[in-house]
Write a structure and sequence with these properties.
With about 350 residues, the protein is an alpha/beta fold. Helix content is about 30%, strand content about 20%. The structure holds guanosine-5'-monophosphate (5GP).
Length: about 350
């Protein structure tokens, strides 16, 4: 047994130190990032915020709406191949830089990917999100490696991991973008059920550094509860930030609205998700997700404005004219929790 004594931080443990700035208006802030991905050599030029591939978030309607603000959506895994093909042919064609098809590592997932890809072609299918709860297994790395050798031009998002060495391992084996986060999610119970996890701000800083040294990219996935947290993830040098809970409860997610006040939201490893997608929780598994009611918030565009407005404002406080400059302009100060007050509307 070993103990690491270094302090590891979460979003709540830090604040941005304000800095002298020549910026006069939030309008001046450029939130677009341009990336060339290490392995696929594909490019990206958009706002690097992503909707998670979760029920109630990663829907076609969400992808269409978020694309209007330059935001990316990882579609839920449970759309059928025909549903995705129909959607691409009707709408998705014009949005090719704004969505990823999500898969696990089951043989059926690969069959589904192939049938869509063969139908619509590389021209209309640019990203895949290979998403498993535990990205540390050898079979996962082999899956990513095989996928890369079969599809050299697809942008591969792969995860989740939370440490440097596994970020490097995935990038070396073909991933372009590594999804970082073990246990921080709003409806995730991994830390309670297993005792496994890594404080998210430190995971972003460390995995980001490891990825960037290799020319790779990372997504900070999970744990953001406010626009300030999203800005902190970018300040910590995340290339993309993925949001589940912050985008839940909106019309575009398609969830049932209860009493005109709440929408059901659940983790994708929760009992509810297992019942919906797999006909129940297998007897050897524990649910690692919660089911909650989130406030019903109507259309997502107002929430998007709030999030992007918050990031712009952070940039003005620290003197970053572009989102690209935010991490260079960031000095985090450590705070005790009582100073990092949570604003509840
Ligand atoms: P949030 O933005 O809600 O804090 O976090 C979203 C992320 O939580 C997702 O992108 C995914 O990585 C993670 N997640 C979603 N459902 C579950 C679950 O049931 N269990 C666990 N451990 N993580 C989940």
């Amino acid at each position: 047994m070993r103990i690491e004594n270094d302090i590891k931080l979460d979003f709540k443990d830090v604040l941005f130190r304000p800095k002298r700035s020549t910026l006069v208006s939030r309008k001046q802030i450029d939130l677009t990032r341009e990336f060339t991905f290490r392995n696929s050599k594909q490019t990206y030029s958009n706002v690097p915020v992503m909707a998670a591939n979760m029920d109630g978030v990663g829907t076609f309607a969400m992808a269409e709406e978020l694309a209007k603000s330059g935001i990316f959506t990882c579609l839920v895994k449970n759309y059928s191949a025909n549903e995705v093909i129909d959607w691409i042919e009707s709408t998705g064609k014009d949005l090719k830089d704004s969505w990823a098809f999500s898969i696990g590592t089951a043989p059926d997932d690969l069959i589904k990917f192939k049938s869509i890809y063969n139908e619509v072609g590389q021209e209309h299918m640019k990203f895949v999100c290979i998403d498993v709860a535990n990205g540390y297994t050898e079979t996962f790395v082999e899956f990513v490696r095989d996928f890369r050798s079969n599809y050299p031009d697809i942008v591969i998002i792969a995860g989740n991991v939370a440490t440097r060495e596994m970020t490097e391992e995935l990038i070396i084996n073909g991933a372009d973008i590594v999804k970082v986060g073990i246990g921080p999610g709003s409806v995730c119970t991994t830390r309670v059920k297993t005792g496994v996890g890594y404080p998210q701000l430190s995971a972003i800083i460390e995995c980001g550094e490891a990825a960037h040294e290799l020319g790779g990219h990372i997504i900070a996935d999970g744990g953001c509860t406010s626009p300030g947290d999203v800005a902190k993830a970018f300040g910590a040098n995340a290339d993309f930030v993925m949001l589940g809970g912050m985008l839940a409860g909106h019309d575009e997610g398609g969830g049932e609205v209860v009493d005109n006040k709440y929408v059901q939201f659940y983790g994708m490893s929760s009992r509810a998700a297992n019942e919906k997608h797999f006909g129940g929780l297998r007897e050897y598994r524990a649910a690692e997700g919660r089911e909650v009611l989130v406030p019903y918030r109507g259309v997502v565009s107002l929430t998007v404005q709030d999030i992007l407005g918050g990031i712009r404002s952070t940039c003005t406080y620290v003197g970053a004219a572009r989102l690209k400059d935010l991490s260079k302009c960031t000095t985090f100060i450590r705070v005790t929790q009582q100073f990092n007050s949570v604003f509840v509307e």
